[in-house]
Amino acid sequence: MCGIFGCILKTGQAAPVIHEGLKKLEYRGYDSVGIATIDDGNISLKKDSGKIDEVHQWHNLDDMPGRLGVGHTRWATHGAPYQENAHPHTDCKNQIAVVHNGIIENFAELKSELVEKGHIFKSKTDTEVIAHLVEEKLKKLSSFVEAVRETVKMLEGSYALAIISVAEPNKIVCARKESPLVVGVADDSLYVASDVPAFLSKTNKSLVIENGEIVVLSDNGYQIHKIGDWQSVIRKPELIEWAPEAAEKQGYPHFMLKEIHEQPIRLRDTLRLQDKYLELMTTFLDRAGEVFLVACGTSYHACLAASYLFSKLSFLATHPVIASEFVEQHGKSVNIDSTLLVVSQSGETADTLEAVESARLRAATVLGLTNIVGSTLTRVSRVYIVQQSGPEIGVAATKTFTSQISVLSQLAIRLAKKRGKVSHTEIEDLEESLERIPDIAEEIIETKEQKVKELAKKYGNQKCFFFLGRGMASAVALEGKLKLMEISYIPSLAYPAGESKHGPISLIESGFPVIFICPRDSTRRSIIGNIMEMKARGASIIAIIEKDDEEIKKLADDYIEIDTGLPEVLSPIPFVIPLQLFAYYMSIERGNDPDKPRNLAKSVTVK
Ligand code: AGP
Question: Is 397 touching ligand 1 by the criterion CB < 6 Å?
Answer without folding.
Answer: yes
